[in-house]
Write a structure and sequence with these properties.
The structure holds two protein chains of two kinds. Chain A is of the alpha/beta class. Chain A has 15 helices and 13 strands. In chain A, the strands form two sheets. Chain A has a ten-stranded mixed beta sheet, covered by helices on one side. Classes of the chains: A alpha/beta, B alpha+beta. Chains A and B meet through strand 2, strand 3, helix 1, strand 4 and strand 5 of A and strand 1, strand 2 and helix 2 of B.
């Protein structure tokens, strides 16, 4: 559908509540009601044949974690998929294009190329270009490995590129090979210089927590557009270090006040990943403050999904025990309602203390990969949630 | 579709059409994708936009409320659970 003076294509899709409209400059997804879609001249939808106009289960994810290889030369000790060697079954470039076609037909708006190190696939930029041609914005996180001026310029194809840097200088090496800091640092310079929207990814663990302020200083000085804070999760090789590196109870409580102070001090934008929602809710922000902003707790299998390099789709890239679905069957599985239904509807079966928590519908149980690792069931509450920790202590519950 | 810098007044937005919520930015994270936006990019605070030649996408009033409600400073008020 061609709309607008310059004939630009409006990227949107219908949902039961109305629809979602994608914008690129500045980048955002606007969730609008049915009347808004009508006012934009976008017509009516069969999805509106329901009185339910709430934002709940979507018709498709808005973003997909799109892994194209498990090969990685850096081999961080905490890699969440145990990446290293190329694995058999990796989709060829033609199949990856077909996978992008399917995501485009489903009106998925964004993907994050991933691996392994996706830069180890020579077709990365070709696939990114192909995604763009199918109205999907490609994004990417890099270690910095193999970055140079020419590659940095090519990175302009992405909507956003983040460089993984958990700490500055020696603090970088808490989780990653120390030799990589100079490489990552140089990559940030090259990307910013090339005009690529560049951010920093910080994996927050017990060891990296103390270096967060220094990272703010660093990101500000480097002109990064934001820092994304990601929680240390027990997946892949990280399971071996989980007990050592999971953030402490006190750190779970200190996390939001620390970010609040540093954001104000350094005037730097930040994001946290969905798994930090319990640590945010612990400070009791008003429910109204969550209403107009897209604040996600666990949206596995709904707002987001993950595709492995062999084409199997998981509800989230960290979850092991949701039934996998081939990317080539995803559309029909979603239409038939046979796609990650249990995790998508987790709030209906939530147990205490989540069941009676006023943030249940926002948080959705915290990180289910943590629950899966500790309890053996991904449908249990996240035991790193300070509310849950206090509840289990109060009731003398034995988890293990 | 890129937004233009053309400003619009709130009165040009029909009252029945509403922006329910906005997800800002792109997620580059190769591990977990969904994000909680605590502080917003500067363009959101200053750019009130029109969607091509169509009706407004985001009204200025809504956008300013949105910015106010999501800025991290707003998390200073606590409630009793």
């Amino acid at each position: 559908m061609k709309i607008g003076k310059e004939g630009e294509e409006l990227n949107y899709r219908f949902e039961n509540f109305g629809g979602i409209i994608a914008n690129n400059d500045p980048p955002f997804l606007a969730f609008v009601n049915r009347d808004y879609m009508r006012e934009l001249g976008l017509g009516e939808s069969e999805l509106w044949n329901t009185s339910d106009e709430s934002i709940g289960l979507l018709s498709a994810p808005t973003e997909v974690h799109f892994s194209i290889t498990e090969k990685c030369s850096v081999r961080c000790q905490h890699c969440y998929i145990d990446a290293g060697k190329q694995t058999p079954g990796e989709l060829d470039v033609e199949s990856l294009r077909r996978a992008l076609d399917i995501l485009s037909e489903m009106k998925v708006f964004h993907i994050a190329f991933a691996g392994g190190d996706a830069m180890e696939r020579p077709e990365l930029f070709e696939l990114a270009q192909y995604a763009r041609s199918r109205s999907i914005i490609p994004n990417f996180t890099v270690s910095g490995f193999n970055m140079n001026t020419e590659v940095a310029r090519k990175m302009r194809i992405f909507g956003q590129v983040n460089v993984s840097i958990d700490g500055v200088g020696e603090k970088y090496g808490a989780l990653r090979p120390q030799r990589m800091f100079k490489i990552a640092d140089k990559a940030v310079d090259l990307l910013v210089e090339a005009g690529v929207p560049t951010g920093i990814n910080c994996l927050v663990s017990r060891s990296t927590f103390e270096g967060i302020e220094e990272l703010f200083k660093y990101a500000k000085a480097k002109k990064a557009n934001h820092i994304s804070f990601l929680r240390f999760k027990p997946a892949g090789r990280a399971k071996r270090f989980y007990e050592r590196e999971k953030i402490t109870y006190q750190q779970t409580i200190d996390f939001l006040p620390l970010l609040r102070r540093l954001t104000a001090k350094y005037k730097l934008n930040i994001k946290t990943d969905c798994s930090f929602m319990p640590m945010i809710c612990y400070h009791c922000p008003s429910l109204e403050s969550f209403e107009t902003v897209t604040s996600y707790g666990c949206e596995a299998g709904n707002v987001l999904m993950g595709m492995r390099s062999d084409g199997q789709v998981t509800a989230c890239s960290f979850l092991n025990n949701t039934p996998d679905i081939s990317i080539f069957d995803l559309q029909s599985a979603l239409q038939s309602g046979n796609c990650f239904e249990k995790i998508r509807n987790w709030t209906k079966t939530a147990v205490e203390p989540c069941k009676s928590c006023k943030y249940l519908n926002i948080c959705k149980g915290g990180c289910h990969s943590v629950a899966e690792y500790i309890t053996g069931s991904l449908y249990e509450p996240d035991l790193e949630c300070p509310f849950v920790a206090e509840y289990t202590n109060k009731h003398n519950l034995i988890i293990y | 579709m890129d937004l233009k810098s053309k400003k619009i007044s709130a009165s040009t937005v029909k009252k029945t059409g509403k922006v329910l919520k906005i997800q800002c930015g792109y997620n580059a994270n190769s591990g977990s994708l969904a994000s909680f936006v605590i502080a917003l990019p500067v363009p959101f605070m200053v750019t009130i936009t029109a969607l091509g030649s169509l009706t407004a996408l985001v009204s200025s009033i809504l956008l300013s409320r949105f910015v106010e409600s999501t800025h991290i400073k707003k998390y200073t008020h606590y409630e009793n659970r």
